[in-house]
Amino acid sequence: MTDLRQTWTPTQAEFDLFAKVSGDDNPIHVDPDFSARTGFGRTVSHGMLIYTKLWGMVRAARPESVALRQAMMFPNPTYAGEDVRLVVKGNLPGTVKMKAIRASDEAELFLGEAEVG
């Protein structure tokens, strides 16, 4: 049974770089002025950036791992500068549950599952 844990504090620079690499330059991720006028009040992380951080934990533990399937949802926004607890639990290879939780209020930011070969 695998139980991987890490703390990550996302930055706007990471949001900007992920936008450049992925091509997802939605202003909600990269434009603080635009984002300030939304219900979020500031920029939010790309969901796939969070998944990438979690998947990186899997690959660090088992470099030969391949993703066979994944499912994910993003119940709450992830903001720059706020500590996030990343958790991966399950069997490698096999199925793992993944979560990202905001440290300050325990809000679930990412809930997912991956089948790992």
Structure description:
- With 117 residues, this protein is α+β, with helices and mostly antiparallel strands.
- The chain has one domain (2-116): Thiol Ester Dehydrase, Chain A (Roll), CATH 3.10.129.10.
- It has four helices and five strands.
- It has a five-stranded antiparallel sheet, covered by helices on one side.
- It starts with a strand and ends with a strand.
- The model has no long low-confidence stretch (mean pLDDT 97).
- Overall geometric form: globular
Number of helices: 4
Strand order of the largest sheet: 1-3-4-5-2
Q: State the distance separating the first and last CA atoms.
A: 15 Å
CATH level 4 superfamily: Hotdog Thioesterase
| Category by helix and strand content | alpha+beta
Element-by-element helix/strand order: EHHHHEEEE
| Unreliably modeled segments | none
Overall CATH class: Alpha Beta
Compute the CA-based radius of gyration.
Answer: 14 Å
